[in-house]
């Protein structure tokens, strides 16, 4: 996943740029760029064939100036420490952009769960949870799902941590199933936040979302729910979608319920009846109104940015656009809704889940969605206003909002000792 650009270096360039514009002293910029704590764990798992395999996992805690660390856990064969560092710092900027009282962290295991049995994934998850339990906790660091993890893994982690404590600790993790303290609305929250941002952006540029054409790269949790919501709630026409095996296109539109059912049956969107194939590269360059990159990082680079003609690019994924590509998109008038704003719906409802766990009082789905709408819409307009003020793109503006908040908190707390 690290691809051509190193995502951690990409993140640092953004913080440097924002820090300079804000007039922060260089030492403080260095603090803001540096992850505070990095834990690497090498741990054994008994595989189904009786053999022992050693896995490597990470938990990187980037910054906690504004509150406890927060960030997901990813299982992927290409996870590496720089990727986890980048993802952890993006969480710091994301929680600050939407102004929720958290810092940023991220975890990952180098593993391809698609080649493992459920039992092997469970044993790996539980052992990793126990290895990182020395630094996580409901007041310290609260993990959540990311690529290739979901409610099932969150439940195992909650259970492992609770077994070690001797009592149930639902607030140690978010993205849990409803039955054990998960929040209503959490599974769709990232996508819901994304379509709220697209809605606000469309209003700003005078685009009618009803009938607007959409292409979605990535058809997992974020991409598939984005399809559902943008079609159902705004009447947009999704004409192309893709997953790791390839993409499909039908100019007349692809219906969410049918594509989802096909993916559930066959394991991929590929081969959907009535569609033509489209590659994962070509899907980004389609003539659509809205592009939603919802897969992995570094897919829009200086090599293909010039070919992107969508009016809005809403980043469901973390880090899909490189630093150099951003400048090209801006010059060409593509309105990029940056990841730290556009996919912050997930962590926002994770925060709501944690609040509900801590209060032991649960909200209705309408309450969750309404509060999410308020948070995301407010953040969108703050970022938009910053963009107007500084005559920059939305990503620079989001970093200006976020870096300022984290810098202010750091300065107020001062430096210990
Ligand atoms: P997921 O594992 O549910 O889905 C990922 C999807 O991307 C799958 O459909 C997979 O087939 C596809 N994919 C993988 N490699 C691809 C490639 N090379 N080209 C095209 N598609 C490819 O993961 P997710 O939770 O949907 O996360 C997707 C992105 O969104 C990640 O960048 C993640 O960090 C980000 N994100 C997720 C959340 C969340 O709440 N799940 C929140 C914020 C950001």
Note down, in words, how this protein is organized.
Among the domains are: about 130 residues, Rossmann fold (3-Layer(aba) Sandwich); about 150 residues, 3-Layer(aba) Sandwich (Rossmann fold), CATH 3.40.50. The mean pLDDT is about 95. α9 links the parallel β11 and β12. Helix content is about 45%, strand content about 15%. Bound molecules: nicotinamide-adenine-dinucleotide. The site of nicotinamide-adenine-dinucleotide has 24 residues, from α7 and β7.
Please give a quick description of this structure.
The chain has 417 residues and is α/β, with parallel strands linked by helices.
CATH architecture of one domain: 3-Layer(aba) Sandwich
How much helical structure, as a percent, in the residues? 40-55%
- The number of distinct helices, counting runs of at least 4 residues, comes to 13
Q: Hetero groups bound?
A: nicotinamide-adenine-dinucleotide
List the helices and strands and how they pair.
Elements: H1 7-21, H2 26-33, E1 37-46, E2 52-63, E3 69-76, H3 81-97, E4 104-110, H4 118-132, E5 141-145, H5 151-165, H6 186-205, E6 213-217, H7 221-234, E7 237-243, E8 246-249, H8 256-266, E9 276-278, E10 290-293, E11 312-314, H9 323-331, E12 335-337, H10 339-342, H11 345-359, H12 365-390, H13 394-413
Parallel strand pairs: 3-4, 3-5, 6-7, 6-10, 10-11, 11-12
Antiparallel strand pairs: 1-2, 2-4, 7-8, 8-9
The protein binds nicotinamide-adenine-dinucleotide (NAD).
Residues 145-148, 190, 217-223, 242-244, 280, 294-296, 316-318, 343, 346 line the site of nicotinamide-adenine-dinucleotide.
